[in-house]
Design a protein that fits this description.
binds zinc ion, mainly beta, 7 strands, 2 domains
């Protein structure tokens, strides 16, 4: 009998984020949108971080974006990840604006800021379905500058 694999950490469900994870199980990416100012945000919370309205609704989004930051993890910390090193961790700026920390399903050696990606869904040990990303071949030509004019 093969030794059992350690289970990866599971999402901690809360009233604010449960819809996000439920939709991931349906292989759909949804974000909380503010019904007052219209903006989506992450992480999910009880109010809009822009205008503090609590009138929020979940809407589907494209699942497309670009890599806004990335790194390679070369040391296994948690036992569940020890067999996967090295692996990448990326921040994806979704086309709708919010940024999502995730990873890219690809070799790590040619990741770059600006590469276009789209969401894919993966069931991890323990049963959670998480959003990951795959490159689509494009490059975003004008990167946002974090709110600079
Ligand atoms: Zn708002």
């Amino acid at each position: 009998m093969a030794p059992s694999q350690p289970v990866k950490p599971q999402p901690r469900l809360s009233p604010d984020n449960a819809v996000f994870w439920e939709k991931c199980k349906e292989h759909a990416l949804h974000l909380p949108f503010c019904k007052s100012c219209g903006k989506p945000h992450l992480p999910p919370g009880p109010v809009c971080p822009f205008c503090l309205s609590d009138a929020l609704e979940w809407r589907p989004v494209s699942g497309r974006g670009h890599i806004s930051s990335w790194t390679i993890i070369r040391q296994g910390g948690l036992p569940a990840f020890r067999d996967e090193v090295p692996y990448n961790v990326v921040q994806v700026e979704l086309d709708e604006g919010p940024r999502l920390t995730s990873s890219v399903v690809a070799p790590d050696d040619d990741l770059a800021i600006g590469q276009a990606v789209e969401v894919v869904f993966e069931e991890i040990s323990g049963g959670a379905v998480i959003p990951r990303f795959r490159r689509t071949g494009g490059v975003k030509s004008s990167l946002s500058q974090g709110g600079a004019p």
